[in-house]
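#onboarding

Welcome to the new folks! Below is a worked example of what a typical request in this channel looks like: someone posts a single protein sequence, and someone else replies with the predicted structure as tokens. Don't worry about understanding the tokens yet, we'll cover that in week two.

Example request:
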Amino acid sequence: MALEHPVGPLRQEPVVRVRGLRMSYGPKEVLTGVDLDVHPGEVVCLLGPNGAGKTTTIEVLEGFRLPSAGEVRVLGTDPARAADAWRARVGVVLQSWRDHARWTPRRLLTQLGGYYRPYSTPERPRPHDVDRLLETVGLTDDADRKIATLSGGRRRRLDVAVGIVGRPDLLFLDEPTAGFDPRQPGGHLHRDGRPAGVRRPARAGGGGPVSGPGASYAVRLGLQRGWTEFTQSQRSPQDQAFYLVVGLGTLTYLWFNRDDPVEGTSLLYPTVALPGILAALVAFNVVIGPAFALAMEREDGTLLRHKALPHGMQGYVTGQLVYHSLGTVPLLLIVLVPSALLFDDVVPAGGGGWLTVVWVLVLGLLATLPLGMILGAVIPDTQKVGTWGMLPVVVVTAISGIFFPVQALWGWVQAVAQVFPTYWIGLGMRSAFLPDAAASLELGGSWRSGQVALVLAAWAVADLLVAPVVLRRMARRQSGSQVAAARDAALQWVR
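Example response:
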């Protein structure tokens, strides 16, 4: 759908211009020489049988797919090379997906609409007022309900609201009538993207970001998103059950070994084992958690939603980092606090020990959390997280000296264990929790604190160099048709 814009230049040329568009998937040619012009004020529908290339054409225009050949200009720009300022002028109504189930429509529209605020101008203020937009799409009564509880038709109305929250100059709708109930009440939109009853703002100069850099604003929105998802997680019965099972399982294991002495020391097994278990929980949680979340959110449409936003991927990645980092806190507390009450000598003595816990955890998160993001970006689907992600992490944890001394393993296995950050997080945690005399149990007979910091910092630097490249490549491959295919594959697997 092409939306009218009050600025003069858009009246003088097409908002969409396509010449000789071709698209091939291997030997199969889907589009062969498509020519198309769309002028301001026009509503253009692509009709045809399944497999005719309608979705492919739309995704090329949206910048979600690279064409095999041809010239494409949308709002005067090649979508494949457009900057985020162009993305702020384009609205995308995706097919109805399953993303943001724990959010409410009001909170989601406020969060996603914030990405457009840096691109607001006096002539086109962005984003829409959320309450007015909810009234327009007929969701006022559902504004504060969880999205998971909405019917399919009302969820479809939310999809439309998400697509127009940034007051786009040009709006794309994929399968726009699917799931709609035309009998349900709702407002109407003017062609310039205004809800009915809202006056068009007066004309004024300017067309770029006026309220600050979009990237830094997206990072702030990502911080808010991470905190929101963390608080939602703490209220989720499923997540509460996960914490309870982990806590009870760990405490039960330590309790049954509470009187076992550790050979060569006067320490009992819970004292020596607890720091390593905490390290393993951190490493496992921040590798498998982001990997599974990223794989799942590729399938449910969350990632594609953010790809359609200006600087949306920066906000998404920031939110993931914050959410999973905060998630380690209750995971550690659910084990550490009861352990301090049940067992002797299982907490660091003095401020120095706690300071070591802090810097080891910070470096450990920086070294492992991006690994989870990288893993989630390369795993084909959620069903393979177990074999591609969980199994290797379990093996690495098993050889990292968490449950038994690494010296008991073959020499080459010891060398392999020291390649990965899990071993070094465990060593750093033991140096914080155990007395200095216990260092004799470690390789080299010392805590090697400097080496712990160096190895974890090296992993953090390497991850931060590799992760953006992998995530960008993954994001370029995301499209609505891929999400639909993943959804259909998941449904077949369930059957």
